[in-house]
Amino acid sequence: MIEVYDKNGLSKGYHKERDELNADEYVLSVHIYVYDQDHNFIIQQRALTKKELPGVWCITGGAVEINENSIDAAIREVQEELSINLNKEEIRFLGRCLNNNYIVDIFSAKAAFKLSELIIKEDEVKAVKLMPLDLTLEYINSLKINQKDYKKIINTQLVNSLL
After folding, report:
1. DSSP classification of residue 26
2. Strands, E, within 49-124: which ranges?
3. What is the CB neighbour count within 10 angstroms for residue 108?
4. What's the rounded Cα separation, in Å, for the pair 155 and 137?
5. What sign has the CA pseudo-torsion 131, 137, 140, 142?
6. What is the mean pLDDT of residues 104-133?
7. Which domains does the chain have, with CATH numbers?
8. Contact (CB, 8 A) for 154 and 131
9. What average pLDDT score do residues 128-147 get?
């Protein structure tokens, strides 16, 4: 079950299964662009058993749980899926957009990690790799699932956050 929101990000005060949403109901979700000191970004391949977008390479993220806020969800998703512990001070909010029935809060965070030492949650993630900023932007812009507003946030706010 997930909390249901309106398009402005206000809770409607009830919960539903994600696949039972009506057109005016939204899931609050997070994407977090985790990068190293050289501005290489973690890209993860979704597990082949995932209901939505199995096997697709993407950014770490997921749904905000009931009674959770976006930043706490971002921290939780990175820890659960990649075993990287972030704290709130390391995270930058980049923007919010609508993407189908999802409200997506987008964050970035610099983290100290070694790719070879990450412990991935295998029911969520099949593989991980690092991509430099230019290739990350190129890939994100090529995905048809990402709408125009999402791409605008990534192309402006993500780049600006690294300066």
Report:
1. B
2. 57-58, 60-63, 91-99, 102-110
3. 22
4. 7
5. negative
6. 95
7. 29-94+103-148 (3.90.79.10)
8. no
9. 90
Length of the chain: 163
CB 2 within 8 A of CB 30: no
pLDDT tens-digit readout, 54-81: 999 999 999 999 999 999 999 999 999 9
In this structure, are residues 33 and 158 in contact, taking their beta carbons and an 8 Å threshold? yes
- The burial class, CB within 10 Å (0-12 / 13-18 / 19+), for 78 is buried
Tokens for 4?
């249901």
**Residue indicated by tokens 């905000």:** 64
Dump strand ranges (E) for 36-142. Answer: 40-46, 57-58, 60-63, 91-99, 102-110, 125-132
CB 70 within 8 A of CB 64: yes
- Token pair recorded at residue 62: 């997921």
Report yes or no on whether pTM surpasses 0.90: yes
Q: Answer whether residue 41 shows pLDDT above 90.
A: yes
Q: Helix or strand or coil: residue 142?
A: helix
Other beta carbons less than 10 A from residue 33's beta carbon: 25
pLDDT of residue 99 exceeding 70, the answer is yes
pLDDT at residue 146, as a whole number: 67
